[in-house]
Amino acid sequence: MRPLLRAPALVRHIRSAPLPAVQARRWRASQAAPASTSSAQHQRQTPPPPSSRPQPETPSAPQPPPPSTPQTYYTLFPLTFPHGPPPAGPFTPPLSTLKREYLRLQSSAHPDLHHGQATQASATVSSALINTAYKTLAHPLHRAEYLLSLRGAEPLAEAAKMGDAEGDAELLMEVMEVREAVEGARSEDEVRGLMGENEERIKECVQGLEETFGRDDLEAAARGVVRLRYWVGVEDKLKEWVGEGER
C-alpha cells in the first residue's frame, strides 16, 4: 500500500503527472491564449508606419488662365479670314465676302443705333475701328504693310512705307521711265494704256506677296512691298490725270 502524500507533495505530484491527450491540449491552449491575445492587442494599438498612413490630398496650385488671342484687324472679320493672316491664311481675301461682313458689322455698330452718351461713344470707337480695319485689309499695299507690323517686323515695315529701294537700280530706273511717260501723256487713250500696263505690274507684285507671305519670308515680303508702293504711286498719278480730264 502506497503511503499517503501530504498536501504540498500532492500538488507537485499532480503537476508532474502525465495528462491525458485532450487535457494536455487544453492546458497548452490555455497557456498560449494570453500571449496571442496580448499580441493582437499590441497590433491593434501600434500605429502603422508613416509611409503606410493615408496622406491627405494636397490641393493643386491654381493654373493661370490660357492667354487670350489678341484682337487684330483679321479677328474682326472671322468669316472672311477663318484661318487668320498669312501664313495660315491667304494674303488676298475674297473682297466680296470682306465687304459684306464689313457692312454687317457697321450696321450693328453705327452710333445712331445706340442710345445713351456712353453707349454712343463706345459705338463710335467700334465703328471707326471697323472702318479702318476694312480699308486696311481691302487694299493690298496697306494690308501688306499691316502684316509686317503685325509680325513684329517694324524696321521692315518702316522701310517699305518710305519706299526704300536702295540697291535696286533696275526698279528705280523703270519707275522713273514710267513717271516720265505719265507726265508726258497728252490723251486719255494714252493714259488708259499706261493704266493697263501699271495694273499688270501691281498684279505681279500682289502675286509675289502671296508667295513670300505664304512661306513667311518677311524680308522678301518687305522688298515686294517697296515695289508695290512705287506702282501704287504711279496708279494714283494716272487716276489724277483721268480725274482732271473728266472735269
Automatic annotation (TrEMBL):
InterPro entries: HscB, HscB_C_sf, HscB_oligo_C, J_dom_sf. PANTHER family: IRON-SULFUR CLUSTER CO-CHAPERONE PROTEIN HSCB. Keywords: Chaperone. One of its GO terms (cellular component) is mitochondrion. Residues 25-95 are annotated as: Disordered. GO terms for molecular function: ATPase activator activity; protein-folding chaperone binding. It holds the Pfam family HSCB_C. The keyword Chaperone applies. Residues 46-69, 83-93 have a biased composition (Pro residues). SUPFAM superfamilies: Chaperone J-domain, HSC20 (HSCB), C-terminal oligomerisation domain. Transmembrane segments: none annotated. Belongs to the HscB family. This is Co-chaperone Hsc20.
